[in-house]
Amino acid sequence: MCVTLFAAMLLSLQWSIIAETMTDILDTDIKYLPGIGPKRAELLSKEIGVHTFRDMLYYFPFRWIDKSKVYPISSIAGDDMPDGEDTPSSSYVQVRGIVTKKETAGMTGGRVARGKSRLIVTLQDATASIEMVFFSGLKWINEKLEQGQEYIAFGKPTVFNGHVNLVHPEVYRPSEAATYGTGSMAGIYSITERMKNGGFGIKAITKVESVLLEKVKGHIKETLPPGIIRDKGLCSLETALVNIHFPSGQRELEEAQRRLKFEELFYLQLSLLKQKNARLSKGTGIMMTRVGDNFNRCYQSLPYPLTNAQKRVIKEMREDMRSGKQMNRLLQGDVGSGKTLVAVLLSLIAVDNGYQACIMAPTEVLANQHLASISKFLKATDAKVALLTGSTKAKDRKQILSDLSDGTINIIVGTHALIEDRVKFHSLGLAIIDEQHRFGVDQRSRLWSKNDDSLGQTPLLPHIMVMTATPIPRTLAMTLYGDLDVSIIDELPPGRTPVVTQHAWESQRRQVFDFMKAQIDSGRQVFVVYPLIKESEKMDYENLEEGYLRIVEEFKAPEYITAVVHGKMKPEDKDIDMQLFASGRADILVATSVIEVGVDVPNASVMVIESAERFGLSQLHQLRGRVGRGAAKSYCILMSGYKLSKESRKRLELMCKTTDGFLLAEEDMKMRGPGDLEGTSQSGLAIDLHISSLYRDGRYLESARRTALDILDKDPLLQSAENHLLTEQLRILRKEGKDVKDYSSIS
Fold it and tell me: How far, in Å, are 3, 4, 6 from residue 9 at the CA level?
C-alpha cells in the first residue's frame, strides 16, 4: 500500500514539474501519460510513430460507429434465425444488463480442452437476455466479469444455434462508460498486429485518447488566426480534437472533420507557397536571353515538327529563363508526348548562353535511354553530352568529373550519382529531373548548389525543370508541386497510333501466343511483363522465372530470340539484354515493371502484361506506353486469372476503354488513394496529412490555397508580428520543432 501511494505521489510530482516547465503540454513524451509508461511508449513509437501527446491526439480514427444508444436486448433480433447470419440490425449495438450466468464449454474432466473451449456469459436486462461468447483470454475475462454485477456490452450480434449472441464484445462497468466512448460515436483506429498482441487494441486506444483529452483540457493552443476561424466558420481546435475522437453526433463529427481537414491543407499550401516566395527572393536567376546556333540547328534538323503543345511549353519556359528569376517548373506529359525533346531544346538554350545542363533520371535504364535519344537530337549541334551513373568505370568517371568542372561537357545525363559531393559543374544553368516523384525534395534542392564557386562568388541559381510521365490530377499536382509552376503537354506527336487494349483470360493464352507469333513474323517485337521475379507462397501470380521458361519453350530459338530484364540483374547483364531487344536482334523482352519508364523501342508493337490485376491503373498505363511509339498499329494485352476483385475488374475495364492518362489518374486516385500515384513517402509532403484526402477534399484544398495566397500576398515570407502564429505552427508541422520532452531524470 505504501509503495503504491509513493508511486502515485511520485507520478503526481513528475506531472507538476512537467506542467510548470513546459511551453506546450502537447510536446510531452507519451510515456508520461497515465496508463502508458516506457514499454507501451516504445510500442507506440515503433508501430505508429507516436512519440508525444500531440502525436497521440492527431492519431485519428478512420471510421466511427454509433455508441450513443443503448438498445433493449429484446430489440436486437428474434430467435430461430439461420446460423451464421447477421441479425437484422447487421451493425454494432450496445446493450446494458446484469451478468446472470457464466459457463465454460469444451471442458474435459474438469480441464479446459485447449483451442476448443469458450466462455459463455449471459447478460440480462428487463426485456430479455443475450449470450456473450469468448474464445480467448478466458481466465482473465472470467475473473473480470462478476455474476450479479451490471455491465455495458458493445459488439456485433450474430446467430448460433438459433440464438443471438455477441462474440468477444467490449464489456465494461457503467462507471467506465465515458472512458470508452459510450454516449457518443466511437472511433475505430488502425492498429497493427504487434499492437494487438501487446494488449493495445482499439479499446485501449480509445481509453488512452479519453485520458489524454482530459489531461490536456484547457491547454490546447489555437493554431489558426481568429480571422480565418471566423471567416471560414470553423470550430475551435480543442472542440475539433474532442469531437474527432468522441463525437456526440454526426453534425459534431462533420464540423470537426471540416476544421481539421481545412487546417491541414491550409498549412500544406502555406508551406509550399512560402517556399516558392523564399526561393524567388533569395537570389537572381540566370538570365538566358539568347537563342543560338545549337538550338536552331537542332530545331531545323528535327525529323518531324513540334506539336502546338510542345511549342507552348517551350515558350513558357523561355519566358522563365530570361526573366531574371529562377525557373522552377513541372512539365507534365503523357507517355510519348515528347517531353525529352523539350528537355533537349531547353538544354541547348542553356548551352547557347554559356551554361551547362544536367538531366537526372531515377534508374540507369532510363538514363541510358535518355543518352541514346538525346545523342540523336544533338548530331547537328556542337554540344558535347556524357553519361554518369553508379556503373560508370573509375577511369571514365575521373575524366567526366574533370570535363564537367572545366566546362568541356555541355550536357550531362545521369542518375542520383549527379548529386554526389564530388560532382562539380563549371556553370550549371539548367537542371532537369525526370520522374520527379521518385526523387526526394532534398535531392532536387541539392542540385541548386552544384556550380563551382571557387572564385568566391555566390553562384546564381540554376533553372529547375522536373518532368513526369505519370499524369497527375490537378488537386494532387497542387499539393505535391505547390511550389512549382506547371506546364502540360496535352497533345501527342503526329504518327503516334493509339494502342488497342484488350483483356484476355488464362484460357485464351493459346490465342495470345499465336497473335504474338503473327506479329513477330511480320517484323514486330513483343514485351511480356510480370509483376514478380520469383514465385511467392503468398501470392498466386505469374512470375518472371516460370514465365521466361514457358516463353522460350513456346518460342524456340533460333527462330525466335528472347531477352530478359529485371531489377536484380547485374547492370552489365541487364544492358546486354536490353540492347539486344532495342537493336531488334531479340524478338521478345521478358521483364518486370523495371521497363515501366525509359524503354523506347519503336518497332515493339505488343505489350503483354501478365497478372494485370496486380498493377495499378497508372502503372498499367505507363507499361502500355512502351508500345505505340512507331507508325505500326500496336496492342496491349492484359492477362488475368478468373478470381478478380471488383476493383481489379474495374481497372481492367477502364484500361480497355480509354488511353487518356489523366482520366485514368483521376480514377486511380478514387480507387486507391493518392499514395501509390505520387510515391509520397519518398517525395515527402511538406506536412503529414492525418485526415485529408487529396482526392475527396478538393474543395477544401481550393479554399485553403486561396486563403494561403491572400496571406502571402500581403506578407510573402510571413515576417510580420501578426503572422507569428502561422510561422510557429509551420515550424511544428514541418518537424523543425523542439525535441520530445524527456523528464526521465526527475525520478
Answer: 10, 9, 5
Query: In DSSP terms, which residues pair with 359 in a beta bridge?
Result: 413, 432
pLDDT tens-digit map of 2-55: 544 554 455 455 544 444 444 678 889 999 999 898 999 999 999 898 999 999
Confirm if 661 and 334 have CB atoms less than 8 A apart: yes
Amino acid at 633: K
Q: How far is 132 from 147, CA to CA, in rounded Å?
A: 13
Mean pLDDT, the chain, as a whole number?
81
pLDDT tens per residue, range 446-501: 666 666 544 445 557 789 898 887 766 666 666 666 667 888 888 877 767 789 99
> DSSP string spanning 675-723?
HHHHTHHHH--SS--SS--TTTTHHHHHHHHHHHHHHHHH-TT--SGGG
Instruction: Classify 158 as helix, strand or coil.
Output: strand
What element of type H or E holds 606? Answer: strand 604-609
Q: With 0-12 CB in 10 A as exposed, 13-18 as middle and 19+ as buried, what is 378?
A: buried
Of 682, 700, 681, give the one whose Cα is nearest residue 692: 700
Interhelix angle 339-352/364-377, nearest 10 degrees: 60
Cell numbers for 123: 447478460
Residues present in the chain in total: 747
Whole-angstrom distance, CA of residue 418 vs CA of residue 414? 6
With H, G, I as helix, E, B as strand and everything else as coil, classify residue 375.
helix
- Write down the pLDDT at residue 380: 93
**pTM > 0.70: yes or no:** no
Q: Report in angstroms the alpha-carbon separations of 120 from 100, 206, 239, 640.
A: 11, 26, 41, 46
Are 343 and 260 in contact by the 8 Å Cβ rule? The answer is: no
Look-up of cell digits 520527379: 436
CA 616 to chain centre: 13
Q: How far is CA 344 from CA 196, 245, 294, 299, 622, in A?
A: 55, 53, 11, 10, 22
Cα–Cα distance for residue pair 518/510, rounded to 1 Å: 13
